[in-house]
Amino acid sequence: MKFGAHVSAAGGLWNAPVNAGKMGxxxxxxxxxxxxxxxxxxxxxxxxxxxxxxxxxNKIERAYIHTPYFxxxxxxxxxxxxxxxxxxxQELERGTLxxxxxxxxxxxxxxxxxxxxxxxxxxxxxxxVMDGYEGSCQLLIEISAGAGAVMGDxxxxxxxxxxxxxxxxxxxxxxxxxHAFASGYDLRNAEAVDATFEKFDKLIGLEKLxxxxxxxxKVEFNGHKDRHEHLGKGxxxxxxxxxxxxSKKLRHLDLILETPMDDGIEADLAFLKAERD
Length: 277
What we know:
The protein has one domain: TIM Barrel. It is 40% helix and 15% strand. It is built from 9 helices and 10 strands.
């Protein structure tokens, strides 16, 4: 199990591994383009070489890209759906150029179209994203926090996406502890962690689980809101994260912190390392 955090790539993508190295990260997550929208910077051979050199110099084992916030494969607006498909595919290609391990995304919200059509639209979007893709960077569906008509807030829905997509076997999953907890999957102690991941294994398969965002929750269990907190300061608590790190079933995972970007994130990282070691 390796630990890291979402880090800034401001001033050049190669700054992400530099910033991660300063924090003591073993893996990292970043945005490769402005998260709120806008045109991405070009990834030239020089940029890619500089990024890879800093990955090596800062002893980062794997890098992940998070797609922008506006992605919605289940929107009632064709322009948003088409742009989402285009941007996810671009991020996969950009990740391949940089040598990144995977790109993770949120499927979006079906509030305009309803759940049944939303599931079909997400599957169609996945098919279009993956059509002809031959890169090395893997696509990961991230579990959502369950607010409103959000897609992918249950293991059953994620299983439906993977089973329905033509290249579902090539697509993995990013588990988010806060999102899962807010969507009704308990993680507060070893027994709860074991039960939750046993259910995941039965419905999706632990072999599909590539990475996990590691966040405590500002909202209560089953609270259906996306609100991250530092480890031990939220409703999940340290016992839950101890159990995740100790689980033999989850040793293959990369855990990536998305806790508030302040001094507390280094304490979060130190806690995870101490529990592993």
